[in-house]
């Protein structure tokens, strides 16, 4: 699956510890049109580089992606 251009759910819903980013907070490297400003650059965090869009995570809409990622984030906090 290809990333939905302008979705940004993976840059909002989860926490990203290497960027000191809390869950639900917009990444400081996310542009106003929801594009990663570090994409393809060496300083992009490994966790971001390793994330691959998948239908089971991203669903068919941006809202589905946000809902799934929020749910997954909450599950990891409960453990």
Strand content: under 5%
Distance between the termini: 29 Å
Shape annotation: globular
What percent of residues adopt helix (DSSP H or I)?
25-40%
Main beta sheet: none
State the oligomer. single chain
Low-confidence stretches: none
Mean pLDDT: 94
- Gyration radius, rounded: 12 Å
Number of domains: 1
Tell me how many strands there are.
0
Instruction: Quickly give the structural class.
Output: mainly alpha
- What string gives the helices and strands in order? HHH
> Helical element count?
3
Task: Provide a descriptive summary of the structure in words.
This is UPF0153 protein. The chain has one domain (9-78). The relative contact order is 0.24. The longest helix has 17 residues, at 62-78. It has 79 residues and is mainly α. 33% of the residues lie in helices and 0% in strands.
Summarize this, please?
This is UPF0153 protein. The chain is built from three helices and no strands.
Secondary-structure map:
Layout: H1 46-50, H2 55-58, H3 62-78
InterPro entries: UPF0153_domain (IPR052572)
Protein name: UPF0153 protein
Organism: Agarivorans gilvus
Keywords for this structure?
3 helices; UPF0153 protein; 79 residues; mainly alpha
